[in-house]
Amino acid sequence: MKNNNNPQKNRRNMTRVLMLFTGVIFLIFATRFSMIMMTKTVNGENLSERIENLYTRSSILPAKRGTIYDIGGNPIALDATSYSLIGVLTDKWSNEDQPNHIIEKEKTAEALAKHIDLSKSELLEILNQTERDQVEFGEPGMNLTYGEKIKIEEEKLPGIVFQETPSRLYPNGVFASHLVGYAAISEESKEAADQVLTGFMGVEEEFDKQLKGTDGEVIRQQDSQGYALPGMEMILEEPTDGKDIYMTLDLRLQTYLESLITTAFEESEPKSMTAMLVNAKTGAIEAATQRPSFNATTMEGVDLKWQNLLVEETFEPGSTFKVLTIAAAINEGVFQPQETYQSGSIAVEGGIISDFNKIGWGEISYLEGFARSSNVAVVKLIEKMGFDVWESYMQAFGISTSTNSGLSNEAKGHYNFDYPLEQANTAFGQGVTVTPFQLVQAFTAISNGGTMMKIHYIDKIVDPKTKEVQKIEPEELASPITPETAKAVLNYLTEVVYTDYGTASAYQIDNARVGVKTGTAELVNPETGMYYTGTYEYLYSAIGFAPIEDPEYILYVTLELPQNNEPKVFVDYLSEVFNPLMTRAVSYAQLGNEDQEETVQAQIPKVTQLSKEEAITKLEEDGFGLISTIGTGSRIVQQYPAQMVPTLLNQRIILMTEGAMTMPDVSGWSRDDVLKVSELTGVNFQFKGEGFVSEQDLPAGYLLDTKKTIHITLE
């Protein structure tokens, strides 16, 4: 019998089978690879596109945010740049001649520890990460100033690079902060690769779309961990920069107001203060502020009061409201200045209304009653004209109606008018609530010949590229009273200031006659729901017009619940803001444009990388005259303002050279100019006084130290 169990034959057969199987598998793979190579697709997915998506991404090329200026072209808010520190750990992008990754980690950590708030050991822990191509340094390595960046770059550390982050600079510090607002990177944008500034509060929020402009688009190559590869980018669409906003604020008056109100606020220790200086003919706000306030660059103080007190919170105006009551009574022909009445108290259905001294002054004229701020006088007047007629005047003056300021959360106030007692109370500003915007807007009818002007704070909007100007013209809202009535009210307001019995004698100024009405309004205690009853538990205010013959300005100041009433009282605190500010405003109005140099705006050229001499020559040829330099080097590495920024020819230009940073001679400089040095170098300046620099505690030519504060005295 034949044996088929032949081991050698079986092995040969198995070998043939395996070879055949291997050949089939190889053929399948070869065919598959050939198809992939030819079609560059797998299961219908394009591999080239997938690789492109993995290592290429399209991102936003942010537009430059528009600058906010005052009426004279002085910058209030402008774009700035902060820097974030990045360490490159991989050598995949380096070459032998010029490595751009970290080589000596010990040396790098030791050097960085001198400049950011991390210890050498903490830095080494970050640098010793093996799974990362690039590393960041957390909060201590973010928001670095240009000066801090320069200091780190001077260490000459391979692999240490900087990522620019957009930021916003407010060079005047606390400066109409709630009205101007602020711009910052939003919480949503913080996590994004492309961080964009967004406006919050005030003009920054209201005009955010115009200020932002239109972003462009750029394609960047990135590594497997998502980091952008240096120099590997292509711009698809150029951005369109945001428009510039010119406010009606006057830098000179606004700065002075901030100084005055800071002193009054610190001395009186109130709950709040507000102040508004408005053009009496146009309704344009030339200075406005509040306390508490904040510094929009550092955000110091923003948590103390988020609301804009000029539009968001209402209050009972008290006796300043009597200006409108008298205007309505004159217009209706029921106010006869020499007619007499019995002061002291008056019975109204539902209660008794008394003068503030309870007993009055006997039988006096209505004009004297107005000067003495008699409640009884104005109640009698609205009884004569009729409550319905009086209500129609309140509505004509815009009471309980929004001013449509455009600012967020504007309140419109209200008045109680259901019962005779409530109706009578509105005559002297009780039971009616307003905002400063509403009240001052109503007062423009008094100062402007009977025509009420819309309160506004924007002068124009300018496209920096096309130079197209959108001018915001003054807007007439209504004419609630006649020109004759308006003139009579202004005349009677002088009685309040210049008679022996007037309540506003403290508000006289030297360079003009003024008309002023004071107010002492009751406040509701939020804990009890009842009016406060303490001696100084009121909202004190003063409204004034100057020069009274033909007013240029309206100034309104409020002081709420002052705590420190010794050795000064409320009238001192209010007059110490009102009198000097109104005096200076009238002086500027009297000078007109006689002392104003002709100013022309032009785009500042790029002068970085030029020698110091070449840069100065180029700027001078373009008409720029005020040029100052910082540093010991001969080549310009940074300029302020930046290239192609529209700049006034009489504005100071700051140039920084390479080498050590040195202190310039800032004698005679403005605060704004000194802050330009701060922006460039990262050095902190502390100011005392207002005006122009008279002293600097670090002499010119000395080295600047970013860790030390330089004290500047202004006069």
TrEMBL record:
Keyword annotations: Membrane
Membrane listed as a keyword: yes
Database matches in Gene3D superfamilies: 2.20.70.70, 3.30.70.2110, DD-peptidase/beta-lactamase superfamily, Penicillin-binding protein 2a (Domain 2)
InterPro entries given in the database record: Beta-lactam/transpept, Beta-lactam/transpept-like, PASTA_dom, PBP_dimer, PBP_dimer_sf, PCN-bd_Tpept
Membrane topology: Single-pass membrane protein
Intracellular or extracellular location(s): Cell membrane
Family: Belongs to the transpeptidase family.
Name of the protein described by the UniProt record: Penicillin-binding protein 2B
Organism: Jeotgalibaca dankookensis
